Amino acid sequence: xxxxxxxxxxxxxxxxxxxxxxxxxxxxxxxxxxxxxxxxxxxxxxxxxxxxxxxxxxxxxxxxxxxxxxxxxxxxxxxxxxxxxxxxxxxxxxxxxxxxxxxxxxxxxxxxxxxxxxxxxxxxxxxxxxxxxxxxxxxxxxxxxxxxxxxxxxxxxxxxxxxxxxxxxxxxxxxxxxxxxxxxxxxxxxxxxxxxxxxxxxxxxxxxxxxxxxxxxxxxxxxxxxxxxxxxxxxxxxxxxxxxxxxxxxxxxxxxxxxxxxxxxxxxxxxxxxxxxxxxxxxxxxxxxxxxxxxxxxxxxxxxxxxxxxxxxxxxxxxxxxxxxxxxxxxxxxxxxxxxxxxxxxxxxxxxxxxxxxxxxxxxxxxxxxxxxxxxxxxxxxxxxxxxxxxxxxxxxxxxxxxxxxxxxxxxxxxxxxxxxxxxxxxxxxxxxxxxxxxxxxxxxxxxxxxxxxxxxxxxxxxxxxx
Length: 467
Hints:
Blueprint: H1 3-11, H2 14-31, H3 37-56, H4 65-83, H5 85-89, H6 96-108, H7 123-148, H8 174-196, H9 203-215, H10 230-243, H11 249-254, H12 263-282, H13 289-300, H14 316-325, H15 338-356, H16 375-399, H17 406-417, H18 437-452, H19 454-466
Helix pairs in contact: 1-3, 2-3, 2-7, 4-6, 4-7, 6-7, 6-18, 7-8, 7-9, 8-9, 9-10, 10-13, 12-13, 13-14, 16-17, 16-18
């Protein structure tokens, strides 16, 4: 194992963390909340030292496939531990496990908070927890683009949404990929913030909502997101729908790219609006179009941000399915992803066509890609689906020891594996605070698996046991 290279590559991700520290420190002085400001200085020192250490050490460029997985796994574990420091040092008497749980839930984009009433938490800490989502979203995108979509793993079939070949090399193009992705992520964030400027939210709410929307997270500065005006609902819905699209879409639009295939993003937009209108026609007497579009967009982006729902949604099953479908393959959201779902649909149509009309041949392409679908991609996607079902069954069994109904148990596990906060989909009688520490620990594991893919864990275990 090349520890110097691991420190070098992980050290780069302290750059956005240092930026969040500086932003929170400046905001603390501006808002007059200086009581816990030392905790942000502690994180600033740790992150700066980590970054400095990565610059000093001479890296060995060559990393094995096993080492790449270690980089990804360690990042998901180390950075939440650093982000947890302000929660632990704060004046809210949070123990070590709760502090890590809060930071991990934010970094992973799940959004389950230990704070029952976030509106009573000081504003710098609220900004910090929202920022943890933003940093986690960037780390997730980098991990799937620079590691899991490479030929060594091929867990992300990126070649079907771009006409350019995926020749990303983790070692030789690390800095280039890091800076390009950070530029696109920042551009995407500024665009979402611009859209929120047309709403009636105050500036602090807009910034926190932007971080939540861009990262497809679930945190907000209040217990629920109350939206009263129709224009505000439409803007929030569009922002969350936009977060389910490819993170490079704005970059590719501005550079008039001919290599990028926009058909996946167009399909997501058409599908979301068509489904919203279909639900409206079915339940026109029970809900409005703006509410329906809002729930559809937050579900397909797998955000799960807690919305103001006075009644149980009659179309909650549709929303559950949407969280599984997910958005673009290169979005910050969770779920199975719409591209993989289309793979299954395409395979089904091909097999049915063979039975009904053997002389007819369907193209083995998807979203107008120049690349034909390979059998290896079918096998990989099928393995991901099977492993998803295995973890779903195991999670339901583990949570069945709690005093929950089967429906609530299934929803919690199913939505957690889709990296979606289940509050909007459960009854008012359910409270996460009633769960035991063991169940919360299991939820942490499922949050982790929802981001790193269970088959990557199997690859890691296989390497440890057999090699």
